[in-house]
Each structure stands twice: as structure tokens, then as C-alpha cells.
Write a structure and sequence with these properties.
- The protein has 26 helices and 22 strands.
- The chain is an alpha/beta fold and 701 residues long.
- Among the domains are: 72 residues, no CATH class; 99 residues, OB fold (Dihydrolipoamide Acetyltransferase, E2P) (Beta Barrel), CATH 2.40.50.140; 154 residues, 3-Layer(aba) Sandwich (Rossmann fold), CATH 3.40.50; 159 residues, Rossmann fold (3-Layer(aba) Sandwich).
- The strands form four sheets. Strands 6-7-4-3-2-5-8 form a seven-stranded mixed beta sheet.
- It starts with a helix and ends with a helix.
- It binds adenosine-5'-diphosphate and magnesium ion.
- The site of adenosine-5'-diphosphate has 15 residues, from α13.
């Protein structure tokens, strides 16, 4: 198919009018024929199988049921109205629910006429409920051809509400194949296709949308996943961002005075086993002659700072400088103060460089860095600026990697002719599989042990109906002198509603905890920065016992005396966000608690998230669970999730294909670095097209 044809705006396709085109653009970012053809099914379902209501199970898979709507009613709720239908077959009854699009549905549903409904069920008590089902009259249903592998395309609530069902999407894709003849140009080379026994692009595209058999579907999926991962790896390799071969680095072979002195005389506590192990790993790395690229993962409070410092001391002992870079001024300042305190007895110096450092001081810092008299520089992105030059930077530590792109890491490399050793520290662990696909060359160390005496945070799930008990618990903790966070969700889409929830919540807490006995702080996104700071400050100083807030408190707050974190509407938060929030407590010596509040209606995914949170405090496990929950293509509700934007591959599940893709990309570049050969022409074309459109950074949010 010509490239031009793929550029055709979606409006031109038969069956796609202006309003559908608009929806496709807004909801799924589908602008052209090419975009539409790349909308791959999430999964395939067997439309030849039918369930009875009595057979329904409490799981998340889709079911198809034949029955009749016997009753339709509107139910008023705090969060708005919903339309509820009673649906009956010869074995029982269930509910169909619509939160939006009521008018359209009320007008089109026929009572007591047989329908085939299709969708996911949730169970509430003994009643099953299907939100926004796909519905087809049985009489029409019987005329359509059905297969055991009908594609299910990604969708959104809006699309479903506006009647753009899976069936419609499937139809317009069919139309696209008819109009274009399904002739897709090959994107991989002949030898590669041969070696891996891949389907051709054309066959793969056809079978991903209209699988002829299980076997062909599997082959189509393999081919397309491979292709997607292959071109990502190619981009990373071409831009020299992956370095399988180790780069020459400085050799830190001396465990010198400072390190020994600090270890023997100035350690403020005994290191945990995990800290010792990680320090050994880092020491080994920096002594080998290869450049270190290591990711240090450790939950909030696991003691990464001391590991950072000991690594820095090794660098200084070997005659080098070190820097530590953090994403925000608050965090950079915390590092600066923490390290300053620890190195007091050692006679070395550290400075802080951020956006708000005064020009005169900045000048001094630049000078001291260049003449080598300054040993350690802590700071924000300001450290990365070109005008910041080191005498000999031997070690760069980056805190909170998820906010730094690979590009910034690359900037650090070029501070010297020999790149410094790099240690990336993060409290939001990146699953190993993900780290591998993004950084390939990154080794990983994990601090999987908390300092002794630290009590693991107890996490529980409570229903809104138990609120009074939760209030009583808050009161007990406050009486013991502790402080409490109460956090509300704030999701842009429904900002007004969320704001109202927050204010309602605040009012009810004020009633339960009256002044002057209790003082309450409130912080939310609509406040001025200065007012927020003031309120935070009051809470930090212990002048207020309760902090009611939206998620703005996620980053950078450290109030060790706060021992209770209450998260309202917890089902609306993602796992990593919940974990981050929980990390705000458990910072002192006291037993800390995290209480996840929800209503009774919970989706299967929400339940999994809540279970994960109550089961484990291990950020690593949580990150893996998080990644598994958000499968690729799961567009419903993924606006703020998803680290890698992949179309079909899943870096957790398709790890083997990823390895294969990397291996073949490496081999290709070894044999034909500029992709000049005739047989590699399709790859070169595709690569050019992809890099024009999709920079590798687009994959990483
Ligand atoms: P994070 O990994 O979140 O950066 P920090 O390095 O800030 O953690 O350490 C958290 C707290 O635990 C600090 O107050 C630190 O002094 C203390 N700490 C770190 N390691 C130990 C240890 N081995 N024994 C006792 N306390 C420790
Ligand atoms: Mg820290």
C-alpha cells in the first residue's frame, strides 16, 4: 500500500462520518487510514459461546448473554445519575448500568425483546452488573457471522456512550481493508523474515484483525510485536543509548582514608545487610575499569543516602569529584543538608546549586568546581547546564530517575572525556524488565531491607460506611501526639466534582475535629503557592494535627511525626501513586498506618490494587503488579498511567521477544551499520518514517 494512501484522513472512509471521525481523533488519536490500521485488538473473544446468568463468575473476562430487558429505571447518586436495567434470562436476573448517554439508551432499548448483550461483569453482593454493555437484538445477531476469535478493540467510555461500539470499529476496519486491498508494504528484510520464519507484513496485518486460525493469529502477533520492539531497539542502538559493550571508565581502586575513616569512626548507625551488599556492588563496579551504570532501587526510607555518600567518598579518595542531582529543589536541598551533616568530621566540602542560587555564589561554585577545590556538588537540573564544568567528575548520582530522561543522563556523560560512573537512585522501582528495555546497559542493585526498628506500615482497606470507626482511630492517634494525612483524588477530567468532594470531606472532618482542640491544614491545587507552603509549614511544625490535601503532597514532604495516611476514594488511584502516598508515613519510629477508603462498588482491577497494597510494602512487587494490571492497549482510564507507550507488545509478557529483537537489532547494526544494503532497504525506509514521526522519547512518559 502506498504511503500516501495510508495518509488519507479517516473522514474519507465509508462508514466514518464527520462526527465519528471526530470521536476517533479525540478518543483514540486516529487521524489517518494508517493510524486506524494500527489499532490492534486488545484480545479476541469467542462469540460462538453464550453464558447463562447463573453461570457468571466473579472475574473480569467478557461474556455474552441472551435475555430481555424487563425493567428500566433511573437511580440518583451522590456522584450523579445512573440508568439501571433489569436483564433476565431463564436462569436469573442481573443489572445493566449506564453512567452516561442515558437519553440515547432510553430511546433505543426495547423492553421484553430478546437481546444479546456483551461486556464485562462485576459482582456486587449477589447481583451481577454489566456497565455499558454492548447490545444487539437477537434477530440481528443471528444474521451476523461470528467466529471464535472476534477481535476486541481498545475503546473509551465516550466511544461506547456515543454508540461507536466494538462492532462498529470492526466494521470500519473491514471497510479499510476492502478499500485498500490490504496491500501493506514489507517493513523488515527478507533474510530477517526468513531466519525468524515471520509472516509477511501483509499476512500479519490481515490476521491480527481477522484471524483465520489460532495459529495464524499467534504468528501475526509475534511478527507485529517483534517488529515494534525491533524498531525501538534500533532507535536506541542507533542513537548510541544502549551500550552493550562496557565503556572504559575511571578505575577507583583505592579504598582510601576518607572511606575508612568514615566507616570506622563516623557511621551514625550500623549499616543494614542490604546497604553493605549494595556498597560492595558499587565498589566492585567502580574498580573494574568499565564505566558504572547502576540503578539503585530502594523504597522510601531504606537508606539510600548513606550508600550515595560512601560511593562519593570512594570517588574523592581516588582523586575525583562527585555530584548528586535531584529533580526538585526540595529534594536537592534535603540531600545537601543530609550529606553536609554526615561529612562534617571529614574535612571535605559540598555546595548546593539550584535555579535559585545567587549569581555571586554560582560564580564561586563554578570556580571551585573547575579548580578542583570543591569535592561534592548537590543540586537540581542546574548542575547539568553546559557552563557547569568540573575539574574531574568521577561519579554522578541521580536521584529519582523517573523524572530524568535518558538524554539528561547522556549530558552527564559529556562532562568529561571519560564518562563518570553513574548511580541512579530511585524509590519508585522500575521493574527489571522495563529497565532493561529502556536502558539495556543498566545494572541493578536493590536495598530490600529497612533499617532496624522501623515498623512496616500497616495497610488496611475500609469501606466508607465505616467512616466513624476511622474517625475514632484518628482521634486515638492524635491523642498520642501523632499527625494524620487525609488525601483526596484530583483527576483533571472531573476537577470540579473532586474539588467538591475535597471540600465536603474537609467540612465533615472539621465537624468531627472541632477547634480549638484540633487544628487542620488544607492544601489543594487551586491555592496559591505561598498559601500551600504556609499550610505545609504549619503541619510540618506540628501546629496542625490533620492535613487534608489532594495529591500535591506526593513529592517532597517529610513529616516524621505523621503516622496515619488516609486515602479517600482509593480505588481511583493507580498503584504506584498509592505506594508513593503511603511512603509519606512510616518515617519516624512509631507504628504507622495507611487506610484505604472506598465505597462498596469496586471493579476487579480496583480490588486487585487494594489487595496488592494491603498485602505488601515492597515497592518492587507493587511496580510489577502495576505494570501487569495496565496491559498495553488498555486505553480505558490510562491517561495518567503507562510508562512505555507500546502499540502491541507488552514488555513484561513479551520479554523473550524483546531480547530477540535486541539481539537482531544489534546483529543488523554490526553487519550493516548504515542500513545501506539492498536487502535492508525496507528497514531503512521504515526506520526513517518512524523516527520522523516518533522519537524514542515519545515512548517514555
Ligand atoms: P531514602 O532511601 O528514602 O533516601 P534515607 O537515606 O533518607 O532514605 O534514610 C532514611 C532514614 O533512615 C534516615 O533518617 C537515615 O539516617 C536512617 N537510616 C539509614 N540507614 C540506616 C541504618 N542502617 N540504620 C538506622 N537508620 C538508618
Ligand atoms: Mg532519599
Amino acid at each position: 500500500m502506498s504511503a500516501q494512501l495510508l495518509q488519507t484522513p479517516i473522514d474519507y472512509l465509508k462508514g466514518v462520518g464527520p462526527s465519528r471521525a471526530d470521536l476517533l481523533r479525540k478518543e483514540l488519536s486516529i487521524y489517518t487510514y494508517g493510524d486506524l490500521i494500527q489499532l490492534f485488538p486488545n484480545r479476541y473473544i469467542d462469540r460462538t459461546a453464550y453464558y447463562k446468568i447463573r453461570q457468571l463468575q466473579d472475574n473480569s473476562s467478557e461474556v455474552q448473554i441472551v435475555g430481555k430487558v424487563v425493567h428500566l429505571k433511573m437511580v440518583e447518586q451522590k456522584r450523579g445519575k445512573r440508568l439501571v436495567a433489569t436483564f433476565r434470562d431463564d436462569t436469573g436476573e442481573m443489572e445493566l448500568v449506564w453512567f452516561r448517554g442515558h437519553k440515547w439508551i432510553k430511546e433505543s432499548i426495547k423492553i421484553n425483546v430478546p437481546y444479546v448483550i456483551f461486556g464485562k461483569c462485576n459482582r456486587y453482593g449477589s447481583v451481577f452488573s454489566m456497565p455499558h454493555p454492548e447490545m444487539e437484538l437477537l434477530s440481528e445477531h443471528e444474521q451476523n457471522l461470528r467466529t471464535a476469535m472476534q477481535p476486541v478493540y481498545p475503546s473509551t467510555e465516550k466511544l461506547a456512550n456515543k454508540g461507536v461500539s466494538n462492532r462498529i470499529i470492526s466494521k470500519i476496519i473491514q471497510q479499510l481493508f476492502i478499500e485498500t486491498g490490504g496491500r501493506f508494504a514489507e517493513t523488515l528484510s527478507e533474510p530477517l523474515i526468513h531466519q525468524l520464519q515471520l509472516l509477511s507484513k501483509r499476512e500479519a496485518m490481515f490476521n491480527i484483525h481477522f484471524p483465520k486460525s489460532q495459529e495464524l493469529l499467534a504468528k501475526a502477533q509475534f511478527r507485529l510485536k517483534f517488529e515494534e520492539l525491533f524498531f525501538i531497539q534500533l532507535q536506541l542502538l542507533m542513537r548510541n543509548l544502549l551500550n552493550k559493550q562496557k565503556i572504559k571508565g575511571f578505575v577507583f581502586d583505592r579504598v582510601g582514608e576518607l572511606f575508612k575513616d568514615f566507616y570506622d569512626h563516623h557511621l551514625p548507625f550500623d549499616l543494614t545487610g542490604a546497604q553493605k551488599r549494595v556498597i560492595r556492588e558499587i565498589r566492585h563496579d567502580m574498580g573494574t575499569g568499565a564505566q558504572m551504570n547502576r540503578l539503585l532501587q530502594g523504597d522510601v526510607g531504606s537508606g539510600k543516602t548513606i550508600v550515595a555518600l560512601m560511593s562519593i567518598l570512594l570517588a574523592i579518595d581516588n582523586g575525583f569529584q562527585a555530584c548528586i542531582v535531584a529533580p526538585t529543589e526540595i529534594l536537592a536541598t534535603q540531600h545537601f543538608n543530609g550529606i553536609l551533616e554526615l561529612i562534617k568530621p571529614l574535612g571535605i566540602n559540598i555546595k548546593l546549586l539550584t535555579g535559585s542560587t545567587k549569581t555571586s555564589e554560582r560564580k564561586e561554585i563554578h570556580e571551585a568546581l573547575e579548580n578542583g577545590s570543591l569535592h561534592i556538588l548537590a543540586g537540581t537540573h542546574a548542575v547539568l547546564e553546559d557552563k557547569v564544568r568540573f575539574h574531574n567528575l568521577g561519579l554522578a548520582i541521580i536521584d529519582e530517575q523517573h523524572r530524568f530522561g535518558v538524554a539528561q543522563r547522556a549530558k552527564l556523560w559529556h562532562k568529561n572525556t571519560t564518562p563518570p560512573h553513574i548511580l541512579v537512585m530511585t524509590a519508585t522501582p522500575i521493574p527489571r524488565t522495563l529497565a532493561m528495555s529502556l536502558y539495556g546497559d543498566l545494572d541493578i542493585s536493590v536495598i530490600d531491607e529497612l533499617p532496624p526498628g522501623r515498623k512496616p506500615i500497616k495497610t488496611v482497606h475500609r469501606y466508607d460506611s465505616n467512616r466513624l470507626k476511622v474517625f475514632a482511630f484518628m482521634r486515638e492517634e492524635i491523642t498520642k501526639g501523632r499527625q494524620v494525612y487525609v488525601v483526596y483524588p484530583l483527576i483533571q477530567e472531573s476537577e470540579k466534582m473532586d474539588y467538591k468532594d475535597l471540600m465536603d470531606g474537609y467540612a465533615s472532618i472539621e465537624r468531627e475535629f472541632p477547634k480549638p482542640q484540633y487544628q487542620i491544614s488544607i492544601v489543594h491545587g487551586q491555592m496559591k503557592a505561598a498559601d500551600k507552603d504556609y499550610e505545609m509549614e504549619r503541619f510540618a511544625k506540628g501546629e496542625t494535627q490533620i492535613m487534608v490535601a489532594t495529591t500535591v503532597i506526593e513529592v517532597g514532604v517529610n513529616v516524621p511525626n505523621a503516622s496515619v495516611m488516609i486515602i479517600e476514594s482509593a480505588e481511583r488511584f493507580g498503584l504506584s501513586q498509592l505506594h508513593q502516598l503511603r511512603g509519606r508515613v512510616g518515617r519516624g519510629a512509631e507504628q504507622s498506618y495507611c487506610i484505604l477508603m472506598t465505597g462498596h462498588k469496586l471493579s476487579t482491577d480496583s480490588k486487585t490494587r487494594l489487595e496488592t497494597m494491603t498485602r505488601t510494602n515492597d515497592g518492587f512487587e507493587i511496580a510489577e503488579a502495576d505494570l501487569k494490571l495496565r496491559g498495553p492497549g488498555d486505553i480505558m482510564g490510562t491517561q495518567q498511567s503507562g510508562i512505555l507507550h507500546l502499540n502491541i507488545a507488552d514488555i513484561v509478557k513479551d520479554n523473550q521477544i524483546l531480547k530477540l529483537a535486541r539481539q537482531y537489532a544489534q546483529q543488523l547494526l554490526r553487519d550493516d551499520p548504515s542500513l545501506a544494503s539492498e536487502e535492508n532497504l525496507p528497514i531503512r525506509h521504515t526506520y526513517a518514517k518512524i523516527s520522523q514521526k516518533k522519537n524514542i522519547w515519545n515512548y517514555i512518559s
